[in-house]
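Form 7-S
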Amino acid sequence: MQGFRARVQKSGKTYYYFDKGGKPRREIPLGPDYVLAVKKWADLTSELHKGEEVSTFIELATRYEREVLPTKAKSTQSTQRGDIKKLREFFSNPTPAPLNQIKPKHIHMLLEYHKKTPTTANRLKRVFSHMFNTARAWGYTENENPVKGIEGYTLDRREVYIDDKVFAAVYEAGSQSLRDSMDLAYLTGQRPSDTLRMDDSQLVDGAMVIKQGKTGARLRIKIEGKLAEVLERIAARKAGHKLHCSSLTVNQHGKPMTKQTLRKQFEAAREQAAKTHPKLAAQIAAMWFYDLRAKAADDTAETRGEQAAADLLGHDSVTTTQQHYLRKGRLVSPTK
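Output:
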């Protein structure tokens, strides 16, 4: 029985106590009669927990989705909404789990349940951890975060470098809309979501002003060289449409490119490029649009150094660029 303590006195007689816990520990004497002591213990336990609310993970998830999720970037909202759905399913089987009863072993079980998709498993662990810390801040629980000490899966680093031949093959097979998007993503080194958000209002005083959606990092990219040529070409193409659109990535009708349209056009171009260039088919099939950000980092690092690559990608630390984006390998000279 939780909180029920028995102590043998010097006289040999046993006395019983109710341990209220806390620091310093507080105990209430229950007397030497075991039956009466148990009755008093039951009454005190009931009184101690009277009116105490039991918060479940489902209650936390509902409030988190309502108050916290809308403050995040749209792309993050979309991903985490799906993650929270998975967490809801896991922590409500067979009944909604009380937050105070979620232990480290349950986080391990969550990882095991999603072991076939380790990237997703690790992300679910991160999302749960933030949700639980938020629950602590809201007063839903005072328990330690059960994620503490539980290791996620070790993931292999993506090593794909898109060389110029592969880039050109997909580029040539794509529509003009896709080509513009590929040029902007590569020349600016930005994520696909940030590329799709680029518009005329960001072109200020000879620079493209970027505020990254994921991190909030701000940078200004000089409008010069190939980027200046691409922006002129985009402006000319947009001028040919009756519909005025401020977006820099527009489809064949002059409307803003959506994430879905970009994906479909890229996949179609990649498929066509593989047929046209069978010797490059495997490399082409392995290409993701997101790899253009890593290509931008590698190509910039090779010509202007790793710090320049980190600056272009909006990283505060060169280490981040080195760990996650530089895939080509440093170019060095031989011993002799």
